[in-house]
Amino acid sequence: MDKQAQNAAGAAAPVAEVAEHIAHALEEDIVLGSLHPCQRLIEDELMARFSAKRHAVRDALALLERMGLVERKRNVGALVRHFSAQEVVELYEMRILLETQAARRMPLPAPPPAVQQLRALQQAHDDAVQANDVRGVFRSNKAFHEAFFGLCGSAVLVQAIGEYARRTHAIRFGAMTSPAQRERSRAEHHALIDALQAGARAQLVALCRAHLLPSRDAYLLAHGHAIARDAADTADSEETGADFGGRGQALA
After folding, report:
1. pTM over 0.90
2. What are the φ/ψ torsions at residue 190 (nearest 5 degrees)?
3. 172 in Cβ contact with 31 (< 8 Å)
4. Is the Cβ–Cβ distance between 87 and 223 less than 8 Å?
5. Which tens digits make up the pLDDT trace of 11-55?
6. DSSP letter string, 191-219
7. In angstroms, rounded to a whole number, what is the distance separating the alpha carbons of residues 157 and 192?
8. Model confidence over 174-189: pLDDT tens digits?
9. Edge-to-edge strand order for the sheet containing 77-80?
């Protein structure tokens, strides 16, 4: 949105709508690495950037804080959230549990209309990757995952998956901005669709799990941490898989 359009929008839109627009723009900046962990979000700068009132900016920062993307520190203000190695491992353990459980619940083989919808969404993602359009990659990737996990049939599970995906936005930026990782993600999306269409549940579950690891590992390495294979990579262990898997099959 250009400056003139921002001014017009800011003048006409309700505060809540302006705050949401600011929050979504900053959310993308965090995912794409334009804003880094521990970077301060200064109200005056945001007011100038978005031509917004202070209370709209504060509401946007409060929304980002509730989403787990921003933290507030006394005498410092709002910062892009930084994660310890343990927090990264634990967040991705939860994502692995939730997303592999969704894969266990999906009806297989997937209905042809669902497969067609995913292929259409993935074409938009392919195009964005090919064009090196990182914001387009983020948006099309989000649309693909929402439709994909929507096939599990549980609104509560889908909501939890979305919440934990947002909470790891500040972790995912390393993978999102790497051309090699974007290409890898694109190829994995096609493999997920193929497994859905073929009815290959074990492959689908394994792909969902593997799809999460590059962003986790990139963040740990970028911040000087060893990759905690023994912790996170055993999150989908045989014991856990049997527990969740049995219930998932019964519900599918």
Report:
1. no
2. -65, -40
3. yes
4. no
5. 556 888 999 999 999 998 988 888 988 899 999 999 999 999 999
6. HHHHHHHHT-HHHHHHHHHHHHHHHHHHH
7. 19
8. 666 788 889 999 999 9
9. 40-41, 77-80, 70-73
